[in-house]
Amino acid sequence: MADRGVDGPHALLGLQERDTELDQLRHRRAHLPARVQLDVLTAELATLEADAAVVRAERDELNRRQAALEAELADTEKRLTDLDRRMRSGAVTASRDLQAMADQLESLRRRRGDLEDADLEIMEAVDPLDARLAELDGRRASVDGDAARLRAEVAESTAAIDADLATATGARAVAAAMVPAELLARYERLRGRLGGVGAAALVGSSCGGCHLTLSAGELDRIRRLPPDAVVTCEQCGRILVH
Prior knowledge:
4-stranded mixed β-sheet, disordered N terminus
């Protein structure tokens, strides 16, 4: 294992590079273009399912009403047939009874007509609902196919990034071993607080982390320090490697 005491501040830059690489890989993994597209399709599928459920419920209610109408229509037809047979059988001879039966027949025929009209209205209402469900099912099948393709693409890309993450994690462990424990803990705290960048190089007269220019006095002070001295940027608080 490498000596943690060797050139600690400068070793931080190598560690920061590894951490930045890991952060970028994790960001890529979480924001794959195919994953974003898949999220859009998943939301569309949910909308299609919800729309289909509404249409299906409306159609099922119409089918229930139609079944009830057709049951009543069948019963009405049976009553008409039975009543007509009785009238024609000669069993009833009283004119008053025959008139009452004729009135009942007329009433049943009107009811049959009303039921047939209502049944036709329901059939006409069901047809566009069936067409809408077919349209939704077709669109859902198409979206399902696209989603399956994207899931495969996401899985392939994720596997490749995971392999890079494993390699980068190993390199990060080697880089971290070069940094003294106390300095490493300080760096980790700063990284968590400052957007993932806990250490930066002094580039000319500016901090490589916040890109702000240090004062002339501070620059002069830093240049007089030994190379392994731990310096903090007066602007952002990051460890500044000079």
